[in-house]
């Protein structure tokens, strides 16, 4: 098997069939497979996925018992791939299937482990563009991503990297974070980006916050180190200010407005404590969930010919 195409499916009953048909046409000269992962859709996506798996010998269909999230669905799909190269593509037709060949040729020519798509003109909603910008800025510092690399969902991954990614067993996968834990041989290539063929994006403020916290807390020690340095800095300043106040009181150079300083100290101290407790709580919560035995996904059904 030369190429595997993983498609996380969510409420795409109108697009998943035409997408598979178009993949069959544009990849006909390659030995390839398609892995559809239904992530708890509430429309007819499951029925259509079952039909596609029965219709085509090279289509696998996996249906999850509930909506676990896009990254969890992708991780499930990666576990069922066999191709030398694995491409992840969305189900909304914003990425033309023909661009898969562009990713493959770039990987072959450059010897890359991973090739990300780079959009010349993005057709996402402004809110999703803002969220992508924030996450990309964060990942530059948290996982060591190059500043000029855009972490798109449409990407190609070499088999050897896939084998490392699927070793992840915790319930909070972040595919790009796992990639950069494995390799730095990463490239990118320009591809077209079209408007959505059907429906609207499921990208919400809640998902943006969840992704931001997952990247911020789950894939780097950078946050805790920042606050450690901040704590050391504030403690040192506190010692310095205390020394100045003590010298001023001993030399009677100025009168210490005690009640103002007490209120300021109490307010600042409580705010700092709550901040530290929040960060610590995120880490402890992640550790608890990771070691609680919760799987990253649960399969309800798998059909393949």
From TrEMBL:
<feature type="domain" description="Glycosyltransferase 2-like">
    <location>
        <begin position="4"/>
        <end position="164"/>
    </location>
</feature>
<dbReference type="Pfam" id="PF00535">
    <property type="entry name" value="Glycos_transf_2"/>
</dbReference>
<keyword id="KW-0812">Transmembrane</keyword>
<feature type="transmembrane region" description="Helical">
    <location>
        <begin position="258"/>
        <end position="280"/>
    </location>
</feature>
<dbReference type="GO" id="GO:0099621">
    <property type="term" value="F:undecaprenyl-phosphate 4-deoxy-4-formamido-L-arabinose transferase activity"/>
</dbReference>
<dbReference type="GO" id="GO:0005886">
    <property type="term" value="C:plasma membrane"/>
</dbReference>
<protein>
    <submittedName>
        <fullName>Glycosyltransferase family 2 protein</fullName>
    </submittedName>
</protein>
<keyword id="KW-1133">Transmembrane helix</keyword>
<dbReference type="InterPro" id="IPR050256">
    <property type="entry name" value="Glycosyltransferase_2"/>
</dbReference>
<keyword id="KW-0808">Transferase</keyword>
<dbReference type="GO" id="GO:0009103">
    <property type="term" value="P:lipopolysaccharide biosynthetic process"/>
</dbReference>
<dbReference type="InterPro" id="IPR001173">
    <property type="entry name" value="Glyco_trans_2-like"/>
</dbReference>
<keyword id="KW-0328">Glycosyltransferase</keyword>
<keyword id="KW-1003">Cell membrane</keyword>
<keyword id="KW-0472">Membrane</keyword>
<feature type="transmembrane region" description="Helical">
    <location>
        <begin position="228"/>
        <end position="251"/>
    </location>
</feature>
<keyword id="KW-0448">Lipopolysaccharide biosynthesis</keyword>
<dbReference type="InterPro" id="IPR029044">
    <property type="entry name" value="Nucleotide-diphossugar_trans"/>
</dbReference>
<feature type="transmembrane region" description="Helical">
    <location>
        <begin position="205"/>
        <end position="222"/>
    </location>
</feature>
